[in-house]
Specification:
By secondary structure, this protein is α+β, with helices and mostly antiparallel strands. Helix content is 40%, strand content 10%. The protein is built from 4 helices and 2 strands, in the order ββαααα.
Length: 99
């Protein structure tokens, strides 16, 4: 399975005021997960090796390739980042982030 974490810290917030969120999760093809988990490759390098791509981690990424570009790498991270921003967008609901 594959997912990403996003973490946001407001510069003026308390040192421990870090909000995190996780992206959607998807299943990696077995060959790809073996390259990552058993061979220790980074996902972008494994994607390039398996699919014959170059610098996929700087382009559409694995999620873009597997979804036929329905979801881009940027779009994949966007929701997680926005979700991590929620406490800072609603400070009245998250007073612990204002210490």
């Amino acid at each position: 399975h594959c997912f990403a974490w996003a973490a946001v810290k407001q510069a003026s917030a308390a040192a421990d005021a870090i909000s995190t969120a996780r992206s959607a999760e998807f299943l990696l093809p077995r060959q790809l997960s073996q390259l990552v988990l058993h061979n220790g490759m980074e996902l972008g390098a494994a994607d390039d090796a398996l699919f014959g791509r170059i610098d996929s981690s700087k382009g559409s990424g694995t999620v873009g390739h597997l979804t036929h570009n329905v979801i881009s790498r940027a779009a994949y991270y966007e929701q997680a980042i926005v979700m991590a921003l929620i406490p800072f967008m609603n400070p009245e609901l998250y007073p612990e982030f204002l210490r």
